[in-house]
């Protein structure tokens, strides 16, 4: 599967905190930056954090949750579909770092079309992130 890279931008309350999380914990390489934004390479995609000092009273992005496979999935969220090895490596790194998951790493829709490994966690500003993987991405990504 050959995919064109996407671009997404999210608000953050503090650039140093975002740099520690995205560059440090997640290991994304930093591209261009300015006093109000930072570009990151998120597995080949352009992920940008923009400073927004007027986030909610708690400094977090407001979310709602929708029920999927017995879990409250935070909305909005974004992330990347990884290989199973990349997904497991990331899950292990996050567990070792003590990251609190919104939805712990697990296999969703086991034995059904679209079976996938998934996990959800938040950045310090409350942006929800989902990283998922499929055993056979070409057949399972858009399975119905």
Q: What does this 3D model show about the protein?
A:
The chain has 144 residues and is of the alpha+beta class. It has a single domain, classed as Roll (2,3-Dihydroxybiphenyl 1,2-Dioxygenase, domain 1). Helix content is 19%, strand content 42%. The chain contains three helices and ten strands, in the order βαββββββαβββα. It has a four-stranded mixed β-sheet with strand order 1-4-3-2, covered by helices on one side. Strand 2 (29-33) and strand 3 form a beta hairpin. The protein is globular, with a radius of gyration of 15 Å. The relative contact order is 0.19. Residues 4-134 form the VOC domain. It holds the Pfam family Glyoxalase. This is Glyoxalase. InterPro entries: Glyas_Bleomycin-R_OHBP_Dase, Glyas_Fos-R_dOase_dom, VOC_core.
Spell out the key features of this protein:
144 residues, alpha+beta, 2,3-Dihydroxybiphenyl 1,2-Dioxygenase, domain 1, four-stranded mixed sheet, 3 helices, 19% helix
Number of strands: 10
- Class of secondary structure makeup: alpha+beta
- For this structure, the CATH topology is 2,3-Dihydroxybiphenyl 1,2-Dioxygenase, domain 1
Question: What is the domain tally?
Answer: 1
Look at the structure and give the CATH class: Alpha Beta
Instruction: List low-confidence stretches.
Output: none
Which value, in Å, is the CA radius of gyration? 15 Å
Note the overall shape: globular
Identify the CATH architecture.
Roll
Q: What is the tally of helical segments?
A: 3
Range of strand content: 35-45%
- Helix fraction bin: 10-25%
Largest sheet: 4 strands, mixed
Query: What is the CA–CA distance across the termini?
Result: 18 Å
Mean pLDDT: 92
The CATH superfamily title: 2,3-Dihydroxybiphenyl 1,2-Dioxygenase, domain 1
Order of helices and strands: EHEEEEEEHEEEH
> How are the strands of the largest sheet arranged?
1-4-3-2
Domain VOC: 4-134
InterPro entries: Glyas_Bleomycin-R_OHBP_Dase, Glyas_Fos-R_dOase_dom, VOC_core
Protein name: Glyoxalase
């Amino acid at each position: 599967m050959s995919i064109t890279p996407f671009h997404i931008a999210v608000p953050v309350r503090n650039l140093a905190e975002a740099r520690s999380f995205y560059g440090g914990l997640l290991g994304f390489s930093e591209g261009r930056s300015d006093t109000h934004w930072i570009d990151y390479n998120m597995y080949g995609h352009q992920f940008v954090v923009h400073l927004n000092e007027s986030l909610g009273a708690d400094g977090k992005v407001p979310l709602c949750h929708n029920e999927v496979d017995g879990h409250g999935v935070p909305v909005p969220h974004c992330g990347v579909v990884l290989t199973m090895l990349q997904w497991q490596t990331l899950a292990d790194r996050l567990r070792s770092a003590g990251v609190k998951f919104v939805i712990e790493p697990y296999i969703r829709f086991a034995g059904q079309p679209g079976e996938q490994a998934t996990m959800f966690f938040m950045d310090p500003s409350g942006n929800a992130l989902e990283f998922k993987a499929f055993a056979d991405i070409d057949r399972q990504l858009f399975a119905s």
